[in-house]
Amino acid sequence: MAKTASKAAKKPVAKKAAKPSPKAQSKSRAPARSTGSASGGTSGNKARFTLYGMLGSGPTYTVGLMLSLARHPFSYIHVNLREGQHKQPDYLVKNRYGQVPALRDGQTYYVQSSAILQHLADALGKFDGKTDLERSRIREWLFWQWDKLAVPVFRLRARARGLRQFGDEVRIMYDTEAKAALAALEHELGRAEWIAAKRPTVADIGIYGVLRYAAEANIDLTPYPNVTAWKKRFEALPGFGTPEQVLPMESRLL
Ligand SMILES: N[C@@H](CCC(=O)N[C@@H](CS)C(=O)NCC(=O)O)C(=O)O
User: What is residue 178's DSSP assignment?
Assistant: First the structure.
């Protein structure tokens, strides 16, 4: 956790690794070889997990948030998107899509934030579904989130930050899409406290990782009282942290 983060976080990430599930224990823990690259070497890195990402990235935050909520410390490598590090061959071997985040677990790199969430839920035995039906619901919501919610919210946020340019017609289209997605979520959260089960799961974490940025995308959540109440409940979970509390600005090896 970044210096500033450790002070501000309500309940910072535990210093000791959480006890892994038996499933997780059977997985390789051998540290990956150092890349020695501009994308960040991991020489001397003792942590099981290394997150590659960027503080401003919502999908990177989602993965950091999961690790924070699971009370699992992680090393962090800052990937400089402005300098195009995410398109360099030494990063592309970690993430074939040339995007952040990537998560190293032992010798293996995992990519796509929703897939990483599911890997972590499985590996750590936390925020997962307890039955096949719950796990299926979680997958549904994580697919829905990228299909209907994340795209309009992140595009509008990128426009507001000057990272993407498009006219009012497109802005209105994304705004309409975001509102339709929020209406669906509002309806669902009128029936249950958490999105996919009777307790928080990676579906909540994935969706929170998008809605955290609603204000930056100029999306007002006040017309959605169930969503607003759920957001508050989520922020009260032990281990919760804001992006600045969860992600360091610079690389950090444990
Ligand atoms: N679906 C991907 C989205 C990742 C993504 O959009 N990452 C952005 C930063 S927030 C990125 O790397 N953009 C650079 C690019 O796509 O070239 C995930 O969930 O991991």
Answer: H
CA of 100 to the centre of ligand 1 (A): 5
CATH fold for domain 132-235: Glutathione S-transferase Yfyf (Class Pi); Chain A, domain 2 (1.20.1050)
Structure tokens that stand for 188 in this block: 């669902």
CB 79 within 8 A of CB 86: yes
Whether this model's pTM surpasses 0.85: yes
Whether residue 64 contacts residue 247, with contact meaning beta carbons closer than 8 Å, is answered with yes
pLDDT, tens digit, 9 for 90 and up, residues 104-156: 999 999 999 999 999 999 999 999 999 999 999 999 999 999 999 999 999 99
The percentage of the chain sitting over the pLDDT mark of 70, rounded to a whole number, equals 83
Atom 11 in ligand 1: residue holding the nearest Cα:
99
Residues with CB under 6 A from ligand 1: 57-59, 81, 86, 98-101, 112-114, 146
CATH superfamily of 3-126+240-246: Glutaredoxin (3.40.30.10)
